[in-house]
From TrEMBL:
<dbReference type="GO" id="GO:0006412">
    <property type="term" value="P:translation"/>
</dbReference>
<keyword id="KW-0687">Ribonucleoprotein</keyword>
<dbReference type="InterPro" id="IPR047865">
    <property type="entry name" value="Ribosomal_uL10_bac_type"/>
</dbReference>
<dbReference type="InterPro" id="IPR043141">
    <property type="entry name" value="Ribosomal_uL10-like_sf"/>
</dbReference>
<dbReference type="InterPro" id="IPR001790">
    <property type="entry name" value="Ribosomal_uL10"/>
</dbReference>
<dbReference type="Pfam" id="PF00466">
    <property type="entry name" value="Ribosomal_L10"/>
</dbReference>
<protein>
    <recommendedName>
        <fullName>Large ribosomal subunit protein uL10m</fullName>
    </recommendedName>
</protein>
<comment type="similarity">
    <text>Belongs to the universal ribosomal protein uL10 family.</text>
</comment>
<dbReference type="GO" id="GO:0003735">
    <property type="term" value="F:structural constituent of ribosome"/>
</dbReference>
<dbReference type="GO" id="GO:0005762">
    <property type="term" value="C:mitochondrial large ribosomal subunit"/>
</dbReference>
<keyword id="KW-0689">Ribosomal protein</keyword>
């Protein structure tokens, strides 16, 4: 006589055959914490290097401006000046061979250290910039142009190897140009030569007259 299989066992066998148990999904691999930390550290270093590199470039540029150009003038500008006024001023100055640049104060002060122009440091404490040119004579054009822009004020600067305050720059701008000075010098030489020639000619004529009179008296 065959023994009966319990219903509970039959039910489990049926479920396993027709309804197999779903496999658990495999877990993703754990992230490499060390790699992520190194990546973040590199990103932070790059972020820190960019401003430092930019400062080095600006520092070098300001030094080069001071060394190459014979005229470098610091100026203060009013925050109310518009972008249109800036563009107009840049264009007019460029036509006269003058370049304008807005500079950061701290970097400019640092770039002036250990240079003959260290005394210009107090000029860069507010909203400041510089005008520069390789020709000092352009200062006359600069003063005329800035007279139409009252929101910009000259503070001081360097001309050749000399440092000048605002009053010195204004006096320098009133000096005649090199061409005018050359013309005046040539006129002075011509006048001197003409006067010398007339003096010598007059003496010769007087001597000749005296000799003629002396001969007449003897005869």
């Amino acid at each position: 006589m065959s023994s009966l299989v319990p219903a509970r066992i039959v039910r489990k066998a049926t479920i396993r055959k027709y309804f197999p148990k779903a496999r658990k999904p495999s877990r993703p691999p754990k992230p490499d914490v060390t790699c992520a930390i190194n990546k973040r550290a590199k990103q932070a270093q790059n972020v820190q290097r960019e401003p430092k590199l930019r400062k080095q470039i600006i520092f070098k540029e300001i030094r080069e401006i001071l060394d190459v150009n014979k005229m470098v003038t610091a100026f203060h500008y009013n925050d109310g000046i518009t972008s249109a006024e800036w563009e107009e001023l840049r264009y007019i100055l460029r036509q006269k061979g003058i370049t304008m640049k807005i500079v950061p104060n701290k970097l400019t002060q640092k770039s002036l250290e250990d240079t003959p122009y260290v005394n210009m440091q107090p000029l860069f404490v507010s909203s400041t910039g510089i005008f520069y040119s390789q020709e000092p004579s352009t200062v006359t054009d600069m003063i005329k142009i800035l007279s139409k822009f009252p929101k910009i004020e000259i503070l001081g600067g360097k001309f050749e190897n000399r440092l000048l305050a605002k009053s010195g720059i204004l006096d320098y701008a009133q000096l005649p140009s090199i061409d005018v000075l050359r013309s005046q010098f040539c006129q002075l030489l011509i006048q001197t030569a003409s006067r010398t020639s007339s003096l010598l000619g007059g003496n010769q004529a007087r001597l000749s007259s005296l000799l003629t009179q002396h001969l007449k008296e003897k005869s």
